Amino acid sequence: MAAPLSGHHIAVLMGGLSSEREVSLVSGRECADALERLGAQVSRVDAGRDIAEVLTRLKPDVCFNALHGAWGEDGCVQGVLETLGVPYTHCGVLASALAMDKAKAKAVLAAAGVAVPGGGLFNRFDVARDHVLPPPYVVKPNAEGSSVGVFLVFDGANRPPQEVVAPGWTFGEEVMVEPYIAGLELAVGVMDGKAMTVTEIVPKTAFYDYEAKYGEGGSEHIVPARIPLHAIEKAKKLSEMAHAALGCRGVTRSDLRYDDVNDVLVLLEVNTQPGMTPTSLVPEQAAAGGVDFDRLVLWIVEDAYARGGAGGIASRGETSGQGAR
């Protein structure tokens, strides 16, 4: 039997220009390896400003977008791919842009009935001058991922984080400030509009920062989460609602906080291109549901073909014979 992707040319976009470049290179490598195991001809593209020229020359059947962060995940690259008419994985232009802008995403989610934290956008110099919310609270860039540039301000803190006004700050003039929700860090993968399961994340660092997410042994993932069944179902429901409200497609991951003392659950954000590294949550959740990494990657590509209207895998008589779900 022919390999599922035999005869298909897939460009894997990785690296990019954001602060999450190194993570993206790992996600891209893992996905490219899987695609080659599935029989595809793979072009590994370290995406830069010349992406349109590169793809015009390569002429791939579909792009697997493994970029993370600004430019690759916020609708910019998606707009280029739409202009070129190349089918691509994950969310479209609007959903990508909305999800990346935390303030706008929160407004849309709240209007759809999804429980989100309070707080809002503040000028970074105001945030550094005095507490804009009573501690404890969280300060984070409005349009970054992977917990880059995130600071926790606890009770008794003498002053706000001064890093937001440091000369090297590159994350914009406004920052998101939200009340700190005590309790557990949760994540829910959503695939084709349906929640997978709930992961409880136990970071080995002070909070679930970049090192905890991507460092070897940086955090412990417990699947399914050790929370009551009603909280499991609510976390899944909120994640499905958020996926739909933002107009997402393919695979996303929602991050949530659960105050298990007061039984309060809030959704923090939706990641439209979740990590595909060896320590990433979505592949782990898929595996828990019986879907191995290669089948997950295959499903993501099949979804891109179906939505791209490009005469997909099944139309060429090379279907895998089983979906990833």
TrEMBL record:
The active site is at 20, 146, 280. It comes from Phenylobacterium kunshanense. Its main location: cytoplasm. SUPFAM superfamilies: Glutathione synthetase ATP-binding domain-like, PreATP-grasp domain. This is D-alanine--D-alanine ligase. Cell wall formation. Binds 2 magnesium or manganese ions per subunit. Its cofactor is Mg(2+); Mn(2+). NCBIfam families: D_ala_D_alaTIGR (TIGR01205), PRK01372.1 (NF002378). Belongs to the D-alanine--D-alanine ligase family. It catalyses: 2 D-alanine + ATP = D-alanyl-D-alanine + ADP + phosphate + H(+). GO terms for molecular function: ATP binding; D-alanine-D-alanine ligase activity; metal ion binding.
